[in-house]
Amino acid sequence: MRSIWNGAISFGLVSIPIKLVNATESHSISFRQIHAEDNGRIRYRKVCELEDREVSQSEIGKGYEDADGTIIPITDEDLSHLPLPTARTIEIVAFVPADRIDPLQMDAAYYLAAGGVPAAKPYVLLREALKRSNKVAIAKYALRGRERLGMLRVVGDAIAMHGLLWPDEVRAPEGVAPDTEVTVRDKELDLADALMDTLGEVDLDDLHDEYREALEEVIAAKAAGEAPPQAPAPAAGGKVLDLMAALENSVKAARASREAPPGGEAEVRRLPRKKKTASTSTPAATPEKTTPKKTTAKKTTAKKTTAKKTTAKKTAAKKTTAKKATSRKRSA
User: Fold this and answer.
1) Residue 180 to residues 173, 175, 247, 252: CA-CA distances in angstroms?
2) Domain at 1-26+86-170, CATH class
3) Separation between Cα atoms, residue 90 and residue 122, nearest integer Å
4) In sequence order, what are the residues at sequence separation of 6 or more whose Cβ sits closer than 8 angstroms to the Cβ of residue 93?
5) What is the pLDDT of residues 235-270, one digit of tens each?
6) How far is CA 150 from CA 11, 270, 272, in A?
């Protein structure tokens, strides 16, 4: 990851060289402005109002517009002389519990990478100190021409810094809440609690940008010369006349959604083996036991008959041989 700022963390008398790296990235799809008639690109040109001509980037500087419209030029040299101790330093000013930070103040997030081998030891020291204290560090730093407020915390084995808005940059929620008097019954709160419990928790890694995926399908279809997919018709909306009924239906729908198998596929379960009853086992067992006995008996009888026949044949052969031998003796 490419660093966007190099400096140091000032931790008391300890200085930790670090590199600032963006911790987030945008996956949103961006569009170009085009001329609808011929798809020509629409470009913005930087034109000087006094000379009415286009100027290059090297000719462009900074200026502050006063209340009367007067432009006061400010050069990079002017900015380099600002008496800011945080120009190249993330200066830790306090350590506070994490719940003291209002999420409304959260801004961009960065990773702080140790700047070289000498920075490894103090970097790990600060990381372990933050872990053991269960606190976050509040710091000041200068980035992109202004001093900012930051919060340092541990993420895995790294130190992350969240840019914070200054307290006076967060608006008070005046005029946002309903100004009419509303009474909420305990039964309605119970149903709301039941709905929250039914929906339960979610693994944030399972969530994804469905709008971006649908947009990619539209772009792919247009690029292939096909008709883009059509979105389903939206459900007819209306005023909620019965809050209790709406909560009860929401709880039922959430429970049904939780009980349904993932991906819309039916859950495969092994059916239990059926137990054999007395009426079905007896007839099946009788022929199985009887048949082998009859077969064995038949085989035994056949063996005995064969043996008798063989013995009879041998006896007859012996008698014949004896008769032939006697006749030969007499003739001799």
Assistant:
1) 16, 11, 22, 30
2) mainly beta
3) 14
4) 138, 139, 140
5) 665 554 577 787 788 878 888 877 766 554 444 444
6) 14, 57, 61
What's the token pair of residue 197? 């419990």
Residue 288: left if φ>0, alpha if ψ -120 to 50, beta else—which one? alpha
Question: What are the residue boundaries of the structural domains of the chain, listed by start?
Answer: 1-26+86-170, 183-202+243-259
Contact 98, 153 (CB under 8 A): yes
Residues 6+ apart with CB under 8 A from 309: none
Helices (H), the chain: 76-80, 120-133, 186-199, 210-223, 243-259, 278-331
The full DSSP string for 294-314 is: HHHHHHHHHHHHHHHHHHHHH
Residue 161: which H helix or E strand, with range?
A: strand 158-164
Q: Would you tell me the crossing angle of helices 243-259 and 186-199 to the nearest 10 degrees?
A: 20
Please state, in angstroms and rounded to a whole number, the distance separating the CA atoms of residues 151 and 157: 17
* pLDDT above 80 (res 310): no
Q: How many angstroms separate the CA atoms of 90 and 158, rounded?
A: 16
Q: Which pTM does this prediction carry? A: 0.62
Q: Is 219 left (phi over 0), alpha (psi -120 to 50) or beta?
A: alpha
**How do strand 62-65 and strand 71-74 relate by DSSP bridges?**
antiparallel
C-alpha to C-alpha distance for 160 and 21, rounded to whole angstroms: 9
Token pair for 221: 């279809």
Q: Which amino acid is at 124?
A: V
Per-residue pLDDT band at 170 (split at 50, 70, 90): very high
- Tokens read off for 99: 């719940």
Proportion of the chain above pLDDT 90, given as a percent? 38
